[in-house]
Amino acid sequence: MKIYMVSACLLGIETRYDGKSKLNKDVLRLCENNICVPFCPEQLGGLPTPRPPCYFIGGDGRSVIEKKAKIVEKESKIDRTLNFIRGAEESLKIAKIVKPDKVIFKDGSPSCGVNRVDIEGIKRKGCGVTCALFEKEGYEVVGYG
What we know:
Layout: E1 3-7, H1 25-30, E2 35-39, H2 41-44, E3 54-57, H3 61-65, E4 70-73, H4 81-98, E5 102-106, E6 116-119, E7 122-125, H5 129-136, E8 141-144
Parallel strand pairs: 1-2, 1-5, 5-8
Antiparallel strand pairs: 3-4, 6-7
Helix pairs in contact: 4-5
């Protein structure tokens, strides 16, 4: 039996920015014979659900961790960088407690993106803030769309 941390929305929990889930049956099936710990970095960072969609300016999650980029709400342009950093740090605290074999993220998210994220309004190659922090800390990550 393995331990996985899983973006809560992939398990059917309504934590996405739009108040919906992104249930992934393959991920749900994986959890049938393993221990899955759901989490949502954006909620852990203090953002509500639903919440305005956000995107990166100046880079992706790695750039945010290096303090070279930021995350803003699409419409209002309110800077939410600190919420995303706090969510990543709180998620990392959970990882240090549960010691997951793998972390399964919702790809495309400004927190959980593994392969692609929204940079300045366009989906581009890159990763989210939480994914970047987990990779930096040596966790194995995988993204599901």
